[in-house]
Design a protein that fits this description.
The protein is an all-alpha fold and 73 residues long. The protein has a domain at 14-41. The protein is built from three helices and no strands. The longest helix has 17 residues, at 25-41. The protein starts with a helix and ends in a 32-residue tail after the last helix.
């Protein structure tokens, strides 16, 4: 179980900067573009001016390699 967990963790970059440095970056970039397109289509956000004194909530990309039933990425 530990080996399988370590292998699956190695598939996931821990940050956008790390993802960009990896040889599989084009796959992560494609996933990011697809996710952003889905969010835009769903109109999940709206740009607005930050009111004075408001706290901005940060965000970050979380990467997950999806596998099929046979365990292939």
């Amino acid at each position: 179980m530990g080996k399988a967990t370590a292998e699956s963790e190695a598939l996931k970059p821990s940050s956008l900067a790390e993802a960009r440095q990896r040889p599989d970056w084009p796959h992560w970039e494609e996933g990011i573009r697809e996710e952003l397109a889905t969010l835009r289509t769903a109109r999940t956000w709206e740009l607005a001016d930050l009111p004075p004194g408001a706290n901005l909530v940060g965000s970050k990309w979380v990467f997950q390699a999806k596998k099929d039933a046979a365990g292939n990425v």
